[in-house]
Amino acid sequence: MRVELHSVTRRFGRLTALDRLSLELPSGSKVALIGPNGSGKSTLSRILAGMLSCEGEVRIDGFSPSTDRRALAQRLVYVAQSAPQLGATVGEVVQAIASVRRLERAQIAEIAARLDFDLSQVASKPVRALSGGMKQKLLLSLAFAADVGLILLDEPTASLDAPSRTAFYRLVAERSRHATLILCSHRLEEVRHLVDHVVALEDGKLAWQGPLSEYLRHASHSLLEVRVHGSETFEWLRARGFHTGGSGDWARVVEHADLLPLLRELMIGLDGRIDAVNVRDLEAIAAGGATVNRTTESSASPRGGAR
Question: How far apart are CA 177 and CA 197, in angstroms?
Fold first, then answer.
């Protein structure tokens, strides 16, 4: 489904959540919608789902989410970051969605099982009594059981454990094969194998958009930290742009493309004198002179001690 936004603005009192946002996504796009908290990601998702009104124009395959909700309802799914606190039981919710979507309950149960979620065991429980992870699995099971043209996922892995995240990635890849996917996430490194396009928001405005490969090339950096022993290594590190702080670690920010060559150079040049190496991925979004960094990290110790 094709998504078109023209000068979309949404205000909550004095707060402008989206500010004249214009964007076009071709049908079949796989999009990571990224940005810090408060950047407008969830607001945009809810507008596309028809849950919020806005100024400007929104079109999904030519339909308006606000005025053509019935026409779009069967063609999209939306999974919110937080599940609603429903008093209805899990069984009642599953039956209602199955009826509206014209699905068999077994289809929903099959998706739930792949997420390690047994619907029969919780069928009589109110949705609000479930844990955060179980609520998320319920929403995902209901969403992925449907065959739709637009999938909207707002921080869908936030409450999932590691095995469930792996199952989730597989389901997204399968279910979005012929659909347009918009996936809001703080963890681009976790979902980038599912997307081919990045839309970055900052303060309700479009900070960056383009192919994933371009984003990673121009907006992603790594902070490489190394701990060494032997004062003879210090000049070697300084000559290659490393700086030291009070912790005793040496650090340098490098572009993604330069990370592996520099790691190889470290291992060869400082063979036997490295105590630990730490890599932090920094995704920098520049907009209006401001830079937002999100960090993930991995570490290794050549001498066997983890950091």
Answer: 15
